């Protein structure tokens, strides 16, 4: 989440190296972030009967609803075959429930920001809500 906050701050403030560096310092104090569906409660991780739950839904159900996997591989051009040891699998958390775009997923957490001057305060006003 820290990287996403720094990236958003940098892009909103000119996309120059200096603003990305400012973002790194600015967002040094953050808490964990937890998923929250638009129409629901924050999904804090918890255990019930030895199984992991995200809020009131099981980890398995959460993965089925909110995650997807991208699989890719490098190709050996002469053979059109996968290169040895080149399979990559990336699991991502989706911005909404699969098949239900109306059920968006937001992230809730705390960001501790120290006020340091008028220039920084002006830049922070752009960040009322950060969309990543």
Strand order of the largest sheet: 2-11-10
| Number of domain units | 2
N-to-C SSE string, H for helix and E for strand: HHEEEEEHEEEEEEEH
Secondary structure: number of strands? 12
Percent of residues in helices: 25-40%
Radius of gyration: 19 Å
Oligomer: single chain
Low-confidence stretches: none
Category from helices, strands and their pairing: alpha+beta
Mean pLDDT: 84
Shape: flat
Features:
single chain, alpha+beta, 3-stranded antiparallel beta sheet, 132 residues, 2 domains
Report what the structure shows.
- With 132 residues, the protein is of the alpha+beta class.
- The protein has two domains: 1-33 and 109-132, no CATH class; 43-102, no CATH class.
- The protein is 28% helix and 34% strand.
- The protein has four helices and twelve strands; from the N terminus they run ααβββββαβββββββα.
- It has helices spanning 2-12, 17-26, 59-66, 118-125; strands at 29-30, 34-37, 45-48, 51-54, 57-58, 67-72, 75-76, 81-82, 88-93, 96-97, 100-108, 111-112.
- The strands form five sheets. Strands 2-11-10 form a three-stranded antiparallel beta sheet, with no helix packed on it. The protein has a three-stranded antiparallel beta sheet with strand order 3-4-5. The protein has a two-stranded antiparallel sheet with strand order 1-12.
- α1 crosses α2 (17-26).
- The chain is flat.
- The N and C termini lie close together (9 Å).
- The relative contact order is 0.20.
- The model has no long low-confidence stretch (mean pLDDT 84).
């Amino acid at each position: 989440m820290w990287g996403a906050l720094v990236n958003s701050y940098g892009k909103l403030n000119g996309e120059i190296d200096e603003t990305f560096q400012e973002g790194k310092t600015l967002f040094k104090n953050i808490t964990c972030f937890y998923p929250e569906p638009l129409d629901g409660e924050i999904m804090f991780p918890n255990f019930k009967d030895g199984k992991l739950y995200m809020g009131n839904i099981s980890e398995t159900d959460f993965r089925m609803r909110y995650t997807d996997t991208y699989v890719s591989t490098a190709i050996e051009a002469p053979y059109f075959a996968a290169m040895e040891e080149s399979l990559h699998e990336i699991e991502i958390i989706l911005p909404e429930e699969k098949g239900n775009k109306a059920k968006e997923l937001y992230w809730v957490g705390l960001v501790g920001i120290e006020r340091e001057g008028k220039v920084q305060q002006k830049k922070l006003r752009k960040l009322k809500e950060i969309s990543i």
